[in-house]
Amino acid sequence: MRQKNALIPTLRTVSEAEMISHQLMLRAGFIRQLAAGIYTYLPLGYRVLNKVEKIVREEMDRIGAQELLLPALHPAELWQETGRWDAYGPELFKVKDRHDRDFAAGPTHEEVITDLLRGEINTYKKLPMSLYQIQTKFRDEKRPRSGLLRGREFLMKDAYSFHADRDSLDQTYEDMYQAYKNIFTRVGLDFRAVEADAGAIGGKGTHEFMVLSDAGEDTIAMCGACDYAANIEMAEVVGVADAADKTEAPAHEKVATPEKRTIEEVAAYLQVDKEQLVKSLLFIVDGEPVLVLVRGDHEVNDVKVKNLLEGTVCELADEETVRRVAGVPSGFVGPVGLKEKVKILADQAVMQLNDMIVGANEVDAHLMHVQAGRDFSVDQVGDLRNIQEGDACPRCGGAIHFKRGIEVGHVFKLGTRYSEAMSARFLDANGKEQPFIMGCYGIGISRTVASIIEQHHDENGIIWPVAVAPFTVHLIAVNMKNEEQSRVAEDLYAELKKAGVEVLFDDRLERAGVKFKDADLLGIPVRVTVGAKAGEGLVEIKLRRSGESQELAVDNLLNELPAWIKRADQ
Question: Where is the signal peptide (predicted)?
């Protein structure tokens, strides 16, 4: 491609972007924003996108998945069958046609693929079957301010598998898991596969593929002694010791805590450690109020609350609901005397406290010397808090530390959630109807592109890995007005194209400094510069990542180039 007439509108600065990937893709002319979270891919950006797609297709095809293309517009009836029309929440784009029928712009395709298979496959003899697509998805994100890392319209690979038994699902899950590792390795990412929650999609077994980056929205709990890694939503807390003091606490008593509502305020006022206090937080799980108790120095994990109750939607109650259920504002709610009004859950660490301080269900008051079992009872006890740095690893007992991560892939064992809800069945070997056992496997294609930049850049611009770079070689003629340089550069451009090398030829009538600055910004792995020594038959070759450079004879460039390309990622 000749750069003179190419649509590569580089910018020196941008003001509206927060994430480095967003900044660099705008500055390098890879994308332009149409509306919040909605982007146009310019030619270079689209080439990178296609490179990632190609790698994904190769790995999907390698494990026998078949590519298809499903509709982006979904009739509401399908989503109503599974209950997700209402449960999915405000991220679901809903539209009406001219006949006032409801549709959704697809954020994911479990309902659509299940509807397809229930009409086409009716026997175990056609199973297992894995199908995938690469398609634009739509989610009305609340804060689409991170460029391609969180858009309202984005490109995704989603795959679905259908099985007659769990063993078959397990095998495909392992195949997909390995394929994902291959994909993210090939595109040059430093990533971890972590245990995760399935969220609105559902299912029990699930892993997220996280790119390690400070730009990530997710917190990953990792062990320093083994390979354990989990999203903080799912990281298991273990090693809770029995209470050291088994003696009964004194009778509880009410103490005034005027205008002291937070754990920090109450602890300071009563001159006690936060560990002695208990937070009492009201959640609404599938429409029902639930009081959750955690130690004062811990944070409630709403995903664990939802999973313990096998719920679908779990949200912290608003202030109006707290006052209606408990009769007092947040900060003064406690479990004593509240059992008749609400289900009570307690984190396992709370049950180890023999002498605790809780809200008195009275404004400006708390109860001291409260003991579980004597002063209040709970309905269920479980692991309901976020793991903390320094906590014991649930696998080996080593110390947990945190990293930030960007989710680029997610694999689920859906089981029969969708097939049961949608009556998608097949005849087994005995002629009996059985629901399909399903798996679901997604990769954010556009998010992967942004994640690559988050890990591969410097102060001058992007540094593309060879496998996904828009071009392999950036050929620069320092001065196109110089007849010798122009001739050598044109000849090299023709030879590189003939040899099948992807080359961007900077033939612009720009200053050398502008060309080199743009080259660093675009991040193409190998730069070949035709400059002052062109008349001597010499050009400079330089690697974008390492900065390694050397003068080479023009006649020897094509022979030397493969070795330089091979070193470009090192």
Answer: none
Beta-carbon contacts of residue 244 (< 8 Å; ≥ 6 apart)? none
Q: What is the mean pLDDT of residues 500-510?
A: 97
- The conformation of residue 467, written as its DSSP 8-state character, comes to G
Give the integer Cα–Cα distance in Å for 53 and 157. 8
- Read off the DSSP letter of residue 277: B
Is the domain defined by 253-382 classed in CATH 1.10.3210.10?
A: no
Phi/psi for 565 (5° steps) reads -65, -40
Answer for the pair 249, 278: CB distance below 8 angstroms, yes or no: no
Q: Which CATH number fits domain 65-235+401-444: 3.30.450.40, 3.40.50.620, 3.30.930.10, 3.30.70.660?
A: 3.30.930.10
Q: Which amino acid is at 258?
A: P
Res 301 pLDDT > 80: yes
Q: What is the dihedral of CA 518, 521, 525, 528, to 10 degrees?
A: 20
Q: pLDDT tens digits, residue range 510-563?
A: 999 999 999 999 999 999 999 999 999 999 999 999 999 999 999 999 999 999
pLDDT in tens, 412-439: 999 999 999 999 999 999 999 999 999 9
Structure tokens at 192: 């971890």
CATH topology of domain 471-567: Rossmann fold (3.40.50)
Q: Which among 522, 484, 414 has a CA at the least distance from the CA of 161? A: 414
pTM across the whole model: 0.87
Task: Compute φ and ψ for 415, nearest 5 degrees.
Answer: 70, -130
Nearest residue to 74 via CA among 117, 118, 112, 100: 112
Work out the angle at residue 212's Cα, subtended by the Cα atoms of residues 210 and 213, and round it to the nearest 5 degrees: 120
- H helix or E strand, kind and range, residue 179: helix 166-186
Domain segments of the chain as ranges: 65-235+401-444, 253-382, 471-567
